[in-house]
Specification:
By secondary structure, the protein is of the alpha/beta class. It has a single domain (48-75, 100-257), classed as P-loop containing nucleotide triphosphate hydrolases (Rossmann fold, 3-Layer(aba) Sandwich), CATH 3.40.50. 32% of the residues lie in helices and 23% in strands.
């Protein structure tokens, strides 16, 4: 018990994980009239920094729409979507772009590398968007490539790299700006099991990273790949624009049992 006016040791205070994502009643639809598709139907969700969360479910269930709303790429039709305490609806278009560039990193199944650019130039793109010159961005870009095991391939073009190497370049590009939210859309679907494991090890490490101010990174992975379920701290299963009510913890337990 702490007595009134006592001065507890700050080191003994338990620090709760920071809320990274907070959604309340989020809806999103496309089309109109009889052609309306309800992609999200009243989503409530809280995610913490330091978590690796997987979204699973059949194609068309709303997973990609959900991460697009969370990351500010799409606006919700209704409801509240906060990223690190700030509601996307409170921002102008220019402010959203700046906040996304500052806080969010993206990893895609198709890599989305620019063919004419070298590996380090591809990785440098987010830094250049933030206002760095190419000369300033080269050092951090090469460091990011070294961190994913490609320090000797900085000058290689995408066509000179294997699929697994290209995905690692994409991860380096996503991480070079030290994002606080990392969104990965089917990052292992096009990879063999061994390469997929290497990629997921990097993504897992990102979820455990803490920046100079002690702030963690939240990682969201959209996937159909049951080979990687054991990496998750939490799995949310979607169906028809909603989360299934049954907890998905058994999916993680079963995946870990077989690894």
């Amino acid at each position: 018990m702490i007595l009134p006016h006592a001065n507890p040791d700050p080191a003994s205070t338990v620090r709760l994980p920071e809320t990274a994502v907070s959604l309340r009643g989020v809806t999103k639809a496309f089309g109109s009239g009889n052609l309306t598709v309800h992609a999200l139907r009243g989503i409530d969700l809280d995610l913490a920094a330091g978590q690796l969360v997987m979204l699973v479910g059949p194609s068309g269930c709303g997973k990609t729409t959900l991460v697009s709303v969370i990351s500010g790429v799409l606006d919700a039709d209704a409801g509240q979507c906060k990223l690190f305490g700030v509601d996307w609806k409170s921002l102008s278009g220019e402010q959203k772009t700046a906040r996304r560039a500052e806080l969010v990193g993206f990893v895609f199944q198709s890599f989305n590398l620019l063919a004419p650019l070298s590996a380090w130039q591809n990785v440098a793109v987010p830094l250049i968007i933030r206002g760095m010159s190419q000369a300033q961005a080269k050092g951090p870009a090469c460091d990011a490539l070294a961190a994913v095991g490609l320090g000797d391939r900085t000058e290689a073009r995408p066509s000179q790299l294997s699929g697994g190497m290209q995905q690692r370049v994409a991860i380096a590009r996503a991480l070079v700006g030290k994002p606080r939210l990392l969104v990965c859309d089917e990052p292992t679907a096009a990879l063999d099991a061994k390469t997929g494991q290497t990629v997921m090890d990097l993504i897992l490490a990102a979820s455990k990273r803490v920046d100079d101010q002690g702030r963690g990174c939240c990682v969201i992975v959209v996937t159909h790949d049951n080979r990687i379920f054991h990496y998750a701290d939490r799995i949310e299963e979607m169906e028809d624009g909603r989360f299934k009510e049954a907890p998905a913890d058994f999916i993680i337990a079963e995946a870990r049992h077989h690894t």
